[in-house]
Each structure stands twice: as structure tokens, then as C-alpha cells.
């Protein structure tokens, strides 16, 4: 609350941690202080990592931080190969995995990578996820897959 009051009185705030930024966004949204919400969102944008990039969009959607949603999605698309290696990605539900792999905006070095990502995600919890293979595999653009997959 001290950060909120400081912003109200001075127009400035020092956002120091991701947790601090998330709390500021929640309170600023409740109090309808859009400039403060924007400042905290910028902090989260600048501190995006492959580990934080899946929790940030949920927060941004909850508090209608559209710019943060867009920037986070762009980060995920640009760093998709690294992001897909994280535990957070492995724990995503199938519909979210499908959303990411079906996008034409995903930056990958080869289409085979999408296939490998699908296999890795399924193998993470094979007993429950095997049934999702066909739903996900249909998004692999086979015309771009090399004939020799290792």
C-alpha cells in the first residue's frame, strides 16, 4: 500500500520485484489507477524470463493489461524453443499447448522441433496425455518436416 500512496502523492513508484509488480497491478486495477498499472506492467515486461512467461499472461488477462498480454505472447513466440523446455510448459493443459504450437508466429528453427515438443509434452505424463497426440500432431506442418528425423 505504501507504493500506491507514494504514486498517488508523487506520481512515481519504484517497482522492485515481480511479486511487488503483481501486487501493484492488482491494487491499481481495483482503485482504477491505470498509469500505475501500466508502470508495473512495464516492469513485468522488462523482467520476462522463460520461467515467468506463462504466469504473466494469466495475471495480465485477469487485470486487463492488454499491452502486457501482447508483449508476453511476443516473448513466448520469439523464444518458443527455450520456453517449451520449461516445467511450466510441460504443465500446461493440452488446449494451451495446442494454442501455442498452432500459431504461425512461433519462431522455431525447424518444424521437427514442434513434433519433438509435442512428444516431450506427452511423455511428461504419458498415461493421461497419449489421447491428445492426434489433436496436437495435426498442427505439425508435415510439408516442412525433413524426411530424416533423428
**Ends apart, CA distance between termini:** 55 Å
Poorly predicted runs of 5 or more residues:
none
Mean pLDDT: 92
> What Rg is obtained from the alpha carbons, in whole angstroms?
19 Å
Biggest beta sheet attributes: none
Number of strands: 0
Count of helical segments?
11
Q: Summarize the helix and strand pattern as letters.
A: HHHHHHHHHHH
Strand fraction:
under 5%
CATH class of the largest domain: Alpha Beta
* Count of discrete structural domains: 2
Could you give me the name of the CATH homologous superfamily of the largest domain? Potassium Channel Kv1.1, Chain A
CATH architectural group of the largest domain? 2-Layer Sandwich
CATH topology of the largest domain: Potassium Channel Kv1.1, Chain A
Structural class: mainly alpha
Q: What characteristic shape results from the CA principal axes? A: elongated
Helix content: 55-70%
Secondary structure elements and their pairing?
Elements: H1 2-10, H2 18-30, H3 34-46, H4 55-62, H5 66-78, H6 80-83, H7 87-90, H8 94-101, H9 111-124, H10 126-129, H11 133-137
Helix pairs in contact: 2-3, 3-5, 4-5
What would you say this structure looks like, in words?
There is one protein chain. The chain is mainly α and 150 residues long. It has two domains: 1-78, Potassium Channel Kv1.1, Chain A (2-Layer Sandwich), CATH 3.30.710.10; 80-150, Serine Threonine Protein Phosphatase 5, Tetratricopeptide repeat (Alpha Horseshoe). The chain has helices at 2-10, 18-30, 34-46, 55-62, 66-78, 80-83, 87-90, 94-101, 111-124, 126-129, 133-137. α3 (34-46) packs parallel to α5 (66-78). The mean pLDDT is 92.
Amino acid at each position: 500500500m505504501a507504493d500506491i500512496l507514494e504514486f498517488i502523492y508523487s506520481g512515481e513508484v519504484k517497482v522492485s520485484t515481480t511479486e511487488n509488480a503483481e501486487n501493484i497491478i492488482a491494487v491499481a486495477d481495483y482503485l482504477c489507477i491505470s498509469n500505475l498499472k501500466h508502470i508495473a506492467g512495464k516492469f513485468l515486461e522488462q523482467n520476462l524470463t522463460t520461467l515467468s512467461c506463462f504466469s504473466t499472461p494469466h495475471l495480465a488477462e485477469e487485470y486487463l493489461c492488454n499491452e502486457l498480454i501482447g508483449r508476453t505472447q511476443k516473448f513466448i513466440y520469439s523464444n518458443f524453443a527455450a520456453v517449451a523446455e520449461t516445467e511450466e510448459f510441460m504443465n500446461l493443459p493440452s488446449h494451451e499447448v495446442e494454442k501455442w504450437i498452432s500459431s504461425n508466429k512461433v519462431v522455431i528453427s525447424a518444424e521437427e522441433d514442434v513434433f519433438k515438443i509435442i512428444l516431450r509434452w506427452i511423455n511428461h505424463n504419458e498415461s493421461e496425455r497419449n489421447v491428445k497426440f492426434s489433436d496436437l500432431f495435426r498442427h505439425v506442418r508435415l510439408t516442412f518436416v525433413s524426411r530424416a528425423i533423428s
